[in-house]
Write the structure tokens for this entry.
Amino acid sequence: MLEGLVSPESLSFSYADMSVPEMLKWLQQHQQQEVLSLSSNDSPELLQILQFHGSNNDELLQSTFSHFQMVGSGFGTNYNMGFGHSHEAMDGCISRTSSCQIHPPDTMGVMLKNSEENRAISLKNKRKSEDKTREEEKTEKKIKVEAERESNISNKEASSDTSKETSKGASQIQKLDYIHVRARRGQATDRHSLAERARREKISKKMKYLQDLVPGCNTVTGKAGVLDEIINYVQSLQRQVEFLSMKLAVTNPELELAVEDLSVKQAYFTNFPVVIASKPSVMVDVPLFPLDQQGSLNLSVSNPNQTSIDAPSESWETQSQSLFASILR
Amino acid sequence: MHMQPTSSMKEEFLQKWQMGLQIYRPLIDNTSVSERRKAIKLSADVAMASLRRGTTCWSRALIQKTATEDNFLVRQMLSGIKAETLINKKLPKVMCHRKIVRRSKKILRRRKSRSAIEEVAAKARKLVKKKTQGLRNVVPGGEFMSNDVLLIQETLDYIVSLQTQVNVMRSIVDAAEAGSERTAYYLGKLKFAIEDG
């Protein structure tokens, strides 16, 4: 799919001049405010990119603990209310990606501390995920010891350093989270491809949700076909809206939907001969002159305060609520 | 895993939609069918978008779009907070950048070597890109979603909201039609009764 204009990796390139252990130490020292000021200086486009939508993935965290895998960090939701308000965007949480894979023991494990440092640190992080990050770091150490790695020694040192530092940091209530991506055997282990793979997996996961949502998508294979179906479905829904609004405009000339709701549904579900006086368009077709003069037939249920139909209207009021609700289901 | 239109969503949509239609009722110029249809559709769209309370990209874009058609309605339907976000229009800067990026990529691509496998893969990728662009055209505000993950998330949410909208509107139309049919039926019956008797 199209690559985003500003990918998350590009944010890390500003620190390319620093070596890895330096960078990590810098990170330990500098707190949230540093990152916040950095990000707020950037263009509003970056803020758009940083506008993550996530879901609370607590159950995902549970499963990862049970399997002692690379752990994803907690999710938060960040809602960007205005485009010019840079600090408001940072007030929300960020979502961090997690890609957890179960692999047989012969695969390589690569610890990748991704460009998490470059993202805004959540201020509204839940306590749950805080506790879990501490546990995460414990499991991190275990995985580091067990995993085989072909990455550089400097990386190893750096990651072991950070593990110590982060364990200290966790005790100091720091909120650093990592994206852990496990590389399969024979696949490139540099940051770019790993991040790209994580992104691709995210996309395919979301496409699966879409496939469940859109009817008739299960038969089609391949991204292009699924996208085609989605486009058709959305277009058909939009056309339906147009059609229904046209239908309503024809059958209900005075837009008295609020009033008509109750009365129409009452008429529909009860067997009373109800003439809804508020719909002259229907009456145009039928010659009504004798009927109009007969007041008894002109039962307008639209006005619940009418005295001519006292007893039934009371019950209808209560009935209408339930009918109303039942129609919505 | 993702949700279906819930009854609470439908109720909220109906309430907001009716509120929007109430705004139209005192206006006398709703005489032609097309005017009424437009009023119905616009208030339905704003109601659907306001369900998300400005949290999704498509809802903001949809509100902006309807604001260009009927500013008054949108301002009345939403609380005062939203009125300001309407003024903050998304800058088309992002779109321009993508064009430049695309053009430069094209130039670079001409130098690449072509093998048979690569060509097929490249064609598949092109097709997918075309489809994603098509999806962007359909989803409101899609032109501003350069991130594919965001696009798919937005599409998911948009589809669910559209389903809600369609469900409620269809049930209203059915009820309205049933009501009108019933009245026509009874009127016909009475007419016959009068003619016979």
Observations:
- Residues 20 and 73 of chain B are 7 Å apart (CA to CA).
- Chain B has a mean pLDDT of 80.
- The radius of gyration of chain B is 24 Å.
- Chain B touches chain A through 83 residues (CB under 8 Å).
